[in-house]
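User: Please fill in residues for this 314-position structure.
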């Protein structure tokens, strides 16, 4: 099968196209013929030697990056009960372990995947794996956002942000989204009630009473997010590079600050699949790339300007 491997951390040029044997699914796994791969910043961080690179590299001669897939079941392990050959499925495979999604075939644990709604494409499904699970686990599981609450979604035009706006709106929150002016229309189209252009305004000059703030940016932005939250409110910060700063900084202002890392969750994925099926949640795939264009896909994520999601087709 066609696959892309990483032998050493580095730039997108370190991604090597090669041929490998098909994986053999374990007893609790299915073999998927991959149709689309969702690309996330964690792919790029791992490729560069950050995130889970050291962990994966210490156990493997080379890494096959990628966790988000949508595809067709080709084989099922002997303990698999939920899927049969021919089913169209999607999900976040084996995160934060070795995903091995940058390939024509991938072995996926049955609990990591869900049936793909038939009314959405493989591209839309692959997009809605890690980023949509993150948005769900931030807003519902950890943030416990409730109807009528004031919610700020920073980086609302990005992968996680664009799902987060839709999920917060679905829960009945008043949603404020931040992005540059170029993406205002997009963010409002997702269902935000108010848009703030972070290049013109410091968020906390306009909002200081949010019940919940999602911060997918981190760094110097953490202080801005904390200032936008009310006392007793919650700020969730996503980039792992800054995970140790958030709780203490937030505490000094009487705000609950937390970092979490997304995890596969069967029930959450089912909920996302139902919302996708109903059209309540939509994946905005701004660009698709061919498998041979994986380096270009990585370079697009590296711009930090991606709108919605980008997907690679196989
Ligand atoms: N902890 C976890 O489990 C977890 C899970 C998923 C992602 N993450 C992390 O979360 C981060 C975001 O991921 P993502 O997939 O959403 O990234 P992404 O899609 O690459 O985000 C790009 C978007 O960020 C916006 N942006 C950049 N700087 C901004 C700012 N200062 N204010 C508002 N918007 C800004 C851009 O909008 P403009 O062009 O309009 O500026 C662009 O649309 C990454 O660091 C990722 O690794 C963590």
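Assistant: Residues filled in for all 314 positions:
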């Amino acid at each position: 099968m066609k696959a892309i491997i990483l032998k050493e951390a580095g730039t997108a040029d370190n991604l090597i196209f090669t041929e490998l044997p098909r994986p053999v699914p374990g007893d609790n796994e299915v073999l998927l013929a991959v149709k689309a791969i969702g690309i996330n910043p964690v792919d790029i961080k791992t490729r560069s030697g950050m995130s889970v690179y050291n962990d994966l590299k210490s156990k493997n001669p080379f890494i096959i990056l990628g966790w988000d897939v949508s595809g067709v079941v080709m084989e099922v392990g002997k303990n698999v009960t939920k899927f049969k050959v021919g089913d169209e499925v999607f999900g976040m495979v084996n995160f934060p372990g070795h995903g091995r999604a940058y390939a024509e075939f991938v072995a996926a644990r049955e609990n990591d995947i869900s049936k793909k709604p038939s009314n959405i494409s493989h591209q839309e499904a692959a997009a809605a794996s890690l980023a949509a699970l993150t948005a769900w686990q931030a807003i519902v599981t950890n943030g416990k956002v409730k109807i009528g609450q004031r919610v700020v979604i920073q980086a609302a035009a990005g992968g996680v942000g664009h799902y987060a706006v839709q999920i917060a709106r679905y829960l009945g929150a008043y949603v404020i989204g931040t992005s540059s002016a170029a993406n205002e229309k997009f963010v409002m189209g997702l269902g935000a009630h108010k848009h703030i252009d972070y290049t013109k305004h410091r968020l906390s000059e306009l909002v200081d009473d949010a019940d919940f703030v999602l911060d997918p940016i981190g760094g110097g932005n953490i202080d801005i997010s904390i200032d936008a939250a009310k006392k007793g409110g919650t700020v969730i910060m996503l980039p792992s590079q800054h995970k140790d700063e958030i709780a203490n900084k937030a505490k000094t202002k009487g705000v609950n600050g937390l970092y979490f890392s997304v995890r596969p969750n069967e029930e959450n994925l089912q909920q996302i699949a139902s919302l996708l099926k109903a059209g309540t949640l939509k994946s905005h795939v701004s660009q698709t790339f061919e498998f041979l264009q994986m380096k270009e896909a990585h370079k697009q994520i590296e711009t930090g300007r991606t709108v919605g999601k980008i997907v690679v087709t196989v």
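For context: Residues 130-142 form the longest helix (13 residues).
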